[in-house]
Amino acid sequence: MKVQEIKQLTPTIKSFTFISENTELPSFGAGSHITLHLPMGMRQYSLINNPLDMINEYEIAVKKTGHLESGSTYLHEDIYEGDVVKVSPPDNYFPLQMEGKHHVFFAAGIGITPFWSMMSYLRSLGESFELHYAVSGQDACPFYNEMNERYANQVTYYLMDRDSKTKKLKERLRELKVGTHVYICGPQSYMDFIVTYCRELGYPKKYIHEERFKARKLEHPTRFKVTIVNEKKTIQVNSNQSLLEALHDAGITIPSACRQGICGSCEVKVCNGEVLHNDTFLTANEKTDKMLTCVSRGKGHISIAVE
């Protein structure tokens, strides 16, 4: 796809608009992301345009992380208007739950991106929503002026110190009414805090939705063995590879999509052994005999069955 326009939204955030001059682009739902195929690998970025206003273009906003070989640095420093980038069609593992009576978005930093599309979409439909945005300051907010113009009565900023921010967020979480759906996107520590407190309050899991492009990091992963019972084969999974990768290396192909533990495509049946689950897809009950091979690991020696 061709990079039609690049805008500098903040000192560290740019927006990129991609168009196709020859093909009609697939539509998408609010909360969707696209995958860019960059020299350092595939990178996912949330779409920020309103699905209802899409005119054959995809728009993303990217924060430069500072790492020299990161996808964000490459986009900021090496991509220009007119360049062509390979882009996979949109996927949506973070959709709006339209049965919700009210939608409450909790964002931190660049985690605002999926909600920018969601808020615009909900506003078009006349649905009820609000945003709670933790950001270091006005200069770090990529849509500050537009946000105040469009959603002045629906946005609460959290610009205070950590303790004050935590107290204020907990106060709002305690006020949530039945039928409200909660959506969280931001750094892992922020997301873990919101999710954990929602669960402490007894909020139903089906009403809590997370956007994670990276699985929770497992500390010090170790090697383990896997017997694939219906293949009559045992393989070893090294500490630096996933079970999904080891299966593919062994010639056992199973479906996969996100590779982040959020879509469920690479699910297999666990026949025996202990599993270290690292996904956000399976329920507690499902984890008794299932695992996602892209992010979860075995302990010692486990047995699985693949279809």
Automatic annotation (TrEMBL):
Q: Which cofactor does it need?
A: FMN
Q: What are the residue boundaries of the 2Fe-2S ferredoxin-type domain, all occurrences included?
A: 224-307
> What keywords sit in the KW lines?
2Fe-2S, Flavoprotein, FMN, Iron, Iron-sulfur, Metal-binding, Oxidoreductase
Query: What is a GO molecular function of this protein?
Result: metal ion binding
Quick check: keyword Transmembrane helix in the entry?
Answer: no
All residue ranges annotated as the FAD-binding FR-type domain in the record? 1-97
For this protein, the record's PANTHER family field holds: PROTEIN YIIM
Q: What is this protein called?
A: Ferredoxin
